[in-house]
From TrEMBL:
Keywords: Cytoplasmic vesicle, Endosome, Golgi apparatus, Lipid-binding, Membrane
Domain (CRAL-TRIO) ranges: 173-334
Entry's Gene Ontology BP terms: lysosome organization
Compartments, as annotated in UniProt: Cytoplasmic vesicle, Clathrin-coated vesicle; Early endosome membrane; Golgi apparatus, trans-Golgi network membrane
Coiled coil regions, renumbered to chain: none
A matching Pfam family: CRAL_TRIO
Annotated GO CC locations: clathrin-coated vesicle; early endosome membrane; trans-Golgi network
Membrane-topology descriptor: Peripheral membrane protein
Task of the protein: Required for normal morphology of late endosomes and/or lysosomes in neurons. Binds phosphatidylinositol 3,5-bisphosphate (PtdIns(3,5)P2).
PROSITE patterns: CRAL_TRIO
Entry protein name: Clavesin-2
Principal cellular location given in the protein's record: cytoplasm
MF (Gene Ontology): phosphatidylinositol bisphosphate binding
Species annotation: Limosa lapponica baueri
Length: 404
């Protein structure tokens, strides 16, 4: 957990205001006895290894292209860094995120230069394309971008078990993906944002944990954030709480919610434009009231509790791009779409951190994720079939509103 602060807030880190323009970058690796210094590298003032292409491209082959080095002109590097952005998105990045192609290289280097102020953290990536995600997520405020970058790696460093076998073929992650944790709609909204969907009642407690669901969501975001358009435009999340039982809700303990908030709100370079609750029961509303003070003000303003009023949802997300589960005009959502994208290509977060490979036969993956084997959503519009709980399932529940 992040530092264990009672108020869930992360402390500010102080450092010298003037950092030399050329400083050695210490690369640390977490070990049982502490942090091990792997190497010290001179600061790089040109673009490092870039990752190009959309998240589908990376899932298909994890495409990587070499950035400008040595004698290449800075303008060429900036062209590569902003490749994949439409003219409209480039303008949006300029107006809303303060992204300036003329100073982009300098902005990235200023964040990179701050790395030496946190020798306690293993910054496993500091290349240009990676740092650019954090600048976009924090509207090119250098210190805020670095703070997010540090929290990103600190979260992983302090929750090592979550990121062991951090790949789509991990059994827990795979089962969560198959049940639609998360799902992604084919169409973007009118702001160019990716629409993620969760059908909460699909959670099968006997097969995987809430931590596995969080891991599946984080892994999916890692894949999707490869798309530079989504780095700028961001995401929207719809959670359908139809048929989500009190028994399931009792597992949403403060410690679990804290882990999720730290991982998604405080430690990941994604811009969430809205989080929509639909068909939420009273106990979910009560739980939200409890955790609301621990959310950032910006996050609180972007959470909408629609209940059974899908018309209010349609005012924010057009029904033309929504499946029938949300009162939309499209067919029911295929739960296996996003799972197949990741599993067909054996996506993992980073091959350097996941050396072991999973070589499941393609026919087994296809059979396992065929539409007939996928669980259907359980919304109020399309209820599907409720799972039958095992009567002998052992309960080790914590009261819903208890505090750790």
């Amino acid at each position: 957990m992040m530092r264990g602060h009672d108020d869930w807030a992360l402390s500010d880190w102080s450092f010298q205001q003037s950092v030399p323009q050329a400083v050695p970058l210490a690369v640390w690796y977490p070990a049982q006895e502490g942090l091990v210094l792997l190497s010290a590298l001179p600061a790089i003032h040109t673009a490092d290894t870039l990752r190009s292409g959309s998240y589908e491209d990376r899932a298909a082959g994890r495409l990587r292209s070499a950035g400008s080095r040595g004698g290449e002109e800075e303008g060429s590097a900036m062209t590569h860094l902003q490749a994949g952005l439409s003219p409209e998105t480039l303008e949006k990045a300029r107006l809303e995120l303060n992204e300036n192609p003329d100073t982009l290289h300098q902005d990235i280097q200023e964040v990179r230069d701050m790395v030496i102020t946190r020798p306690d953290i293993g910054f496993l990536r500091t290349d240009d394309a990676f740092i650019l995600r954090f600048l976009r997520a924090r509207k090119f405020q250098h210190f805020e971008a670095f703070r997010l970058l540090a929290q990103y790696f600190e979260y992983r460093q302090q929750n090592l078990d979550m990121f062991k076998s951090f790949k789509a073929t991990d059994p827990g992650i795979k089962q969560a993906l198959k049940d639609g944790f998360p799902g992604g709609l084919a169409n973007l909204d009118h702001y160019g944002r990716k629409i993620l969907v969760l059908f909460a009642a699909n959670w099968d407690q006997s097969r995987y944990t809430l931590v596995d669901i969080l891991r599946a969501i984080l892994l999916s975001l890692e894949a999707m954030i490869e798309d530079p358009e989504l780095q700028v435009n961001g995401f929207v999340l719809i959670i359908d709480w139809s048929n989500f039982t009190f028994k399931q809700a009792s597992k949403l303990t403060p410690s679990m919610l804290r882990l999720a908030i730290e991982g998604l709100q405080d430690s990941f370079p994604a811009r969430f434009g809205g989080i929509h609750f639909v068909n939420q029961p009273w106990y979910i509303h009560a739980l939200y009231t409890v955790i609301r003070p621990f959310l950032k003000e910006k996050t609180r303003k972007r959470i909408f509790l629609h209940g059974n009023n899908l018309n209010s949802l349609h005012q924010l997300i057009h029904p033309e791009i929504l499946p029938s589960e949300f009162g939309g005009m499209l067919p029911p959502y295929d739960m296996g779409t996003w799972a197949r994208t990741l599993l067909d290509h054996e996506y993992d977060d980073d091959s350097e951190c996941n050396a072991d490979s999973y070589n499941a036969p393609a026919k087994d993956i296809e059979k396992d994720l065929s539409p007939k084997s996928m669980k259907r959503s359980q919304s109020v519009v399309d209820p599907g079939v409720l799972k039958r709980m095992d009567k002998n399932e052992e309960e080790n529940m914590q009261p819903l509103l208890s505090l750790d």
